[in-house]
Description:
This protein has 141 residues and is mainly α. It is built from seven helices and two strands; from the N terminus they run ααααααββα.
Amino acid sequence: MIHVGVFILGGGFFLFSHTNSTLTFYLAVVLIAIGTSLMTFMPLGTTLMNWFDRNRALAMGMILTGLAVGGFFVPGVAWVLEKYGWRTMALVSGVVVLISGTGLARIVRKEPEPYGYLPDGALAVPASGNTPLSLRESRMF
């Protein structure tokens, strides 16, 4: 879902850079909103719930802090806006989203079990015999 969101968001910025009517503007804004939604809170929250039990609050705080770090890019965005205009800034934003978003989306893993882990980084060990301990059997709620 994150990959789809990255491409929709990037496409929204590309469309925004070529806006020449009210309809195109609204379509670009809708694509940007949908892309942002598909690649932030819902998929990252779901992934976080699968990977963390004990330290969920800390992990959620780190994700939200990471999303807020985007504020450090505001001076650069303002400089490009002033120097080259809003169309160029929208095009640059689309390229940055596609390049960085595609790379970052590749490292997100939905569940730890396929990689031999349980939540909180515990190694999956067989419960008895050769049957691996599943996540559902090991979680203590």
